[in-house]
Amino acid sequence: MVTGGARGKTEKELLNLLQVPSRDKLDPLVKQLMSISRLPEIKLANRLYPDDDFPILPTFKNRLQKLYNSTLVSVDLNAKDATPAIDEINTWVSNQTGGHIKKALDKNDLARNKSTTMNALLMINCLLFDAKWQRGFQGQNTRDGNTFYPDIGPPQEKKLTLMMRNGLFPYVDLTSEIGARMIHLPFENNDLIFTIVLPNKGITLSQVE
Predict the structure, then answer these.
(1) Segment 49-74, tens digit of pLDDT
(2) How does residue 206 score in pLDDT terms, banded at 50, 70 and 90?
(3) Which of 15, 44, 73, 137 has its CA 20 to 30 A from that of 161?
(4) How crowded is residue 103: how many other Cβ atoms within 10 Å of its Cβ?
(5) CATH says 37-129 is which class?
(6) Among 41-55, 79-93, 137-151, which is the least confidently predicted range?
(7) Looking at domain 139-208, does it have CATH number 2.60.40.10?
(8) DSSP helix/strand/coil, 203
């Protein structure tokens, strides 16, 4: 959403972050993402809240409506008491996610660090994913694990709870390509698949990416 309103250096940096070469290449990806968001298992709460004194071009408003089915809502982001604005935003997020995400903002999130700074634009991006496995995991098979491999530094011992089950799943060993293995776990809705990418020992996630 933000990339659509950016130009120049800012637009270039955002496109680079998204690993998309141009805005023309971004729009089809957005449409594909929005089609996925219509699945009942996925609920999105995406909205831009500009300050009352922050003007927005009509062309950008139209772009948000057309591509993201989203609207702009102006609020007072610089009020001495930001509670009404925060309550309004949290209520909207809760309604959009069926009450699963009740609070996107805390009471101090709109506080300004200095008297000279002003809040111009608030970006809200919440995603709820609620789907059932095609074949669920049994609680009695849960095991404790303790090895975690961070991107930087030696392996760290962390207390982890690991779900376990036996079954036949699509699996591929990509050691020679990316130094990792991959497995698909299906959800009840066949349009959705959970993909696990496990880097080999000594390979970091950033190297796989």
Answers:
(1) 999 998 889 999 998 888 888 889 99
(2) confident
(3) 44
(4) 14
(5) alpha beta
(6) 137-151
(7) no
(8) coil
